[in-house]
Amino acid sequence: MKKNYYILLMMCILLLSCNREVKKGELLEIPVDIDRNFSLPLSDIADEIIAIDLELTNESLVNPDHIQSVLLLENDVIIAEADKILVFNRDGKYVRAIGSMGQGPGEFTRIRNTALDKNNKYLYVINFDYKIICYDLMTGNYVKESSRMRQIEPIKDINYMNDELLLLAEPSGNDEKGYFKLSALYHFNNEFQIIDSVIIRKNYFGQAFRINDFNRDYILFGNSNFYVYCSEIYPDMSMPSQVQTNPSEIVLRDTLYRFENNHLIPELKLKFKNNGIGADRNKFIHIYSIYRSSRYIFAYYRNGLNKNYCHFCYDTKTGKGYTMQDGYTDDINNIEKRIDMHPFNLNTEIFYYWYTHMKPDDLEEPNPTLYIGKLKK
C-alpha cells in the first residue's frame, strides 16, 4: 500500500513538473547581448527594398527630423510630421496635404500619431492635446473629431483594426491604496465611444514617477496576430523621499503581448543581463519598443551604461541575435550612415526608413528618399 502511495506521489510530481515546463516553454525568452555591436546588413534580413524619391515643392517640404509616422496605401504613401500631413504617390510625386495647423475644428497644433482605416478610407490623427481628428483619405477633407480622449491621457499609441479604433493609454488616479498609474488598451467605435477596455497593469507609486514617453510602435499587426508592447512606468529614483515602491516594481518592461479574445497573452520576453537593473537598483536599460514579424523579433532600447541607442534583431530561424548601435547597415543602397528601421503598423512584414541624399551640385537640401522593404520569411 505504501509503495503504491509513493508511486502515485512521484507521478503527481512528474505531472506538475511537466506542466510547469510547458508553461515556461510557452514564453519565448530571447537573450540580448548588450556588450557587442554588430553590423547587420539589410541584405541578410530583407528580400527587396524599393526607393521613392519624394518630390520637393513649395508645399511638400519634408523635415526628416520631424517625421512621426508613415502610412502605406495601395497607390500612395502618407507622411505625418509634427505639424503637417503630406500625401505622395508611389512614384514620389506630391499629391496633396491633409488638414492644417490651428485651434479650430479639423485643425491640429501638434501631431502625436496617426492610424489608418483602409475599409472606410479614413485617417485618424491624435493631436498633442489628445483631441482625435478624422479625415477622408480620398479628398483630405475633415470628417469629425472628438475631445473625449483627454479622459484617458496620456495616449501612447493608436491603431485601427477590425472596425475599431485602438488606443494604448496610461491614465493616472487615486484610490484607497494611493496614487497609481494605469496601462490600458481602449477600444472605440467610429463614433468615438469606448466599447471595451483591457487593463494591462496598475502600478502604485508616490507622487514622483517617470514614464517612457517615447512614442514608438506599441500597437502593431504582424505574423497574423495583433501585438501590444506596453512601455515603462517606474519610480523616479532621483526623488527617493517621495517614492513608495519596492524592488519588484523596478523591473524592465520586457514582454511582448499577443492580443486574443480581449485577453493579453505573453508572447515573448527579452532577457537582459541582470534583468537590466544596476547595482544601485536603478535601471540601466530603457526599452522603447518590441515587435515581431513571422520570422524576426525586433527591439529598440537605450543602454544607460554607455548612453547608446540600440537596435536589436533576433532571427527565430537561425536562433541568432544582433545588437546594433545607431541602426542597421544598408548594403543594398550603399548608404554610409546606419539607418533607423520602422515597421508599418498594419503589417510588420514590411518596413520603412528614409535618408537624404545630397549631391555635390545641390544648392539646398532635397527631400529625403523613402525606402520600403520586405522582410525574409
Kindly state the percentage of residues in helix: under 10%
Low-confidence stretches: 1-25, 237-248
Give the CATH architecture: 6 Propeller
The outline comes out as globular
Average of pLDDT: 83
What is the total domain count?
A: 1
Find the CATH superfamily: TolB, C-terminal domain
The fraction of residues in strands falls at: over 45%
Question: Number of DSSP strands?
Answer: 30
N-to-C terminal Cα separation, in Å?
A: 57 Å
For the CA atoms, what is the radius of gyration? 23 Å
CATH topology: the name is: Neuraminidase
Question: How is this structure best described in words?
Answer:
Strands 1-23-22-20-19 form a five-stranded mixed β-sheet. Strands 13, 14, 15, 16 and 17 form a five-stranded antiparallel β-sheet that branches. A four-stranded antiparallel β-sheet has the order 2-30-29-28, with no helix packed on it. It has a single domain, classed as TolB, C-terminal domain (Neuraminidase). The longest helix is centred in the N-terminal third of the chain and has 25 residues, at 2-26. The protein has 377 residues and is mainly beta. It is built from one helix and 30 strands.
Task: Give a quick set of tags describing it.
five-stranded mixed beta sheet, 1 helix, mainly beta, disordered N terminus, Neuraminidase, 377 residues
Describe the secondary structure blueprint for this structure.
Blueprint: H1 2-26, E1 28-31, E2 46-53, E3 67-72, E4 76-81, E5 85-89, E6 94-97, E7 100-101, E8 107-108, E9 111-117, E10 122-127, E11 132-136, E12 142-146, E13 155-161, E14 164-169, E15 172-175, E16 178-188, E17 194-205, E18 209-211, E19 219-222, E20 225-229, E21 233-235, E22 255-260, E23 263-271, E24 285-292, E25 296-303, E26 308-315, E27 320-325, E28 342-344, E29 347-355, E30 369-375
Parallel strand pairs: 1-23, 7-8
Antiparallel strand pairs: 2-30, 3-4, 4-5, 5-6, 9-10, 10-11, 11-12, 13-14, 14-16, 15-16, 16-17, 18-21, 19-20, 20-22, 22-23, 24-25, 25-26, 26-27, 28-29, 29-30
